[in-house]
# Entry
Amino acid sequence: MSTPLSGTSAAPAHIPTATFELGSYQAAVDAQLQAFGTQNFTERFWQKDATLWTQDAQAQQSIRSFMGWLRVAEDLQQAVPDLEQFVAEVKAAGFSHVVVMGMGGSTMAPIVFRESAEQGPNGLNMLVLDTTDPGTIQEIEQAVPLAHTLFIVASKSGTTAEPLAFGDYFYARLKEIKGERAGENFIGITDPGTPFVATAEKLGYRRVFLNFPEVGGRFSALTYFGLVPAALYGLDVREILTRALHMMRACGANGPAENNPGEALGVALGVLAQAGHDKLTLLVPPSLSSLGLWMEQLVAESTGKEGLGILPIADEPLASADYGLDRVFVYVGYKGQSDAANEQLIKQLREKGHPIITILMNDVLDLGQEFFRWEVATAVASAVFGINPFDQPNVQAAKTATDKLMKAVEEHGELPQQPATLAENGLTFYASHAGAAGSAAELVKDFFGQAQAGDYLSVQAYLTETPTVTGAIQQIRAAVLNSRHIATTAGYGPRFLHSTGQYHKGGPNTGLFLQLTADNPNDLPLPGRSYTFGTLKNAQAQGDLEALHHNGRRTLRVHLGADAAQGLQTLLALVPTR
Ligand SMILES: O=P(O)(O)OC[C@H]1O[C@](O)(CO)[C@@H](O)[C@@H]1O
# Structure
């Protein structure tokens, strides 16, 4: 890559346009592009030359074995007739609904497809389950006609606790209805040879799609993990893949350097992050509001390690005052479609001199192209940092802590209790840095008072997702953004553990973590286990808190009591607004 990048990229007409307004950082970005050109970066990238990322021999081996995503869209194109036939078979069998069950990369693309695109005329109603929260599981159970619902257990490793638990739960429910024929309502997506393949066969699953071992979870949007659900939802997967292949060629070794959309984006993001602009603030029209979930997982879990990283900031309320200087704003929207609120904001950001990148898609099927562009960009930004984008070392720490806690539950019947810092008005507080706070108001004030320029707030909600709860969390974010001027993120647990969770523990120590928990009034038993979904969720929260402490992070857990919405209002009243 040798041609300097500036202004609008001269990509072929069928590629969504990208515009870079990088101001004083343009020179550094151009210099990095020049350096990559001298190193023959593009060709080596496509040849899976792991020395582009690291000099560590073991890490190089792992990198080489996880670059199958580069060409996997070609394999999937061959599989389209089979996918179409499978959808026809499922419809002929009388299914009307599909529930996709999995974590992180195994469900993020289906969430984006479902939230961003209309259900196709021949599609099934689709829901996604990616939480151990018993309230949400019950909602899903009540929202679908069980006998006419196809359940997808999606797990690359075939060992992740959550999807296996979801599968067991719904299989037991189906067994009550269909007896030995329960397996007809289940399919699996997993890698060849995982323990789950044997389980699925034993239980008589309708089908198991064997995925590609050389594709990691967060790079799997354009594999069976993204495309089986997309096809069942009635989307034109052939067209999604055709467009992904356009992007693949534009990012390919033989394309002209200035037209390489993935490298252009990756170099810009990498260089900006190194210069302190490490909060990738995503702006989207309402119809693309879930894109941030997918991007968080891809970018944060890939880059957030060794004290480095890029943190996506998704769905943030608008700031009433100036943003900090740690931001790069990325707008992803549609060509020719007005988006007045974001246009107005971008105008102000431009006047203030913030770096801004704008990507305009033609329609929703261009997501196929964007998935590929962002995958390349993430790998390229990681090369700028010199880190392995394909591992997630710190996710395991939280999982291990949770496993240990679950063992204690099996032995003693309950989770070990944590000593509280203080309790007031129905809320219980557990602070990592308690100081001398004598009241809840002081404690909360002290917690947010730690915020410095460049820090971020992470609200971690192990709660049932509802509009009211989300609204209250957004109010907390707005108060902190406007009073402390730091970037704010929010995620429902345990979903975010498989996404931004890596960055929280492995990235820079700039996070303030507000963990929210509540009672589980309508808990659900887990078939074959001595514990409930609620206990598992509590152990995941506690395990992650331990992992955060182990990494010296600043945390405040607030247990909201029996009524999460009510508890959030009480907490909100304590959050400083100035
Ligand atoms: O598909 P699996 O193996 O169940 O893993 C789910 C998710 O968990 C992680 O391995 C770790 O969070 C993600 O990278 C992955 O997408």
Remarks:
- The longest helix spans residues 72-92.
- The domain at 7-23+258-385 is CATH 3.40.50.10490 (Rossmann fold).
- Residues 102-106, 155-157, 160, 163, 217-218, 301, 392, 395, 498 surround 6-O-phosphono-beta-D-fructofuranose (CB under 6 Å).
- Confidence is low (pLDDT under 50) at residues 1-6.
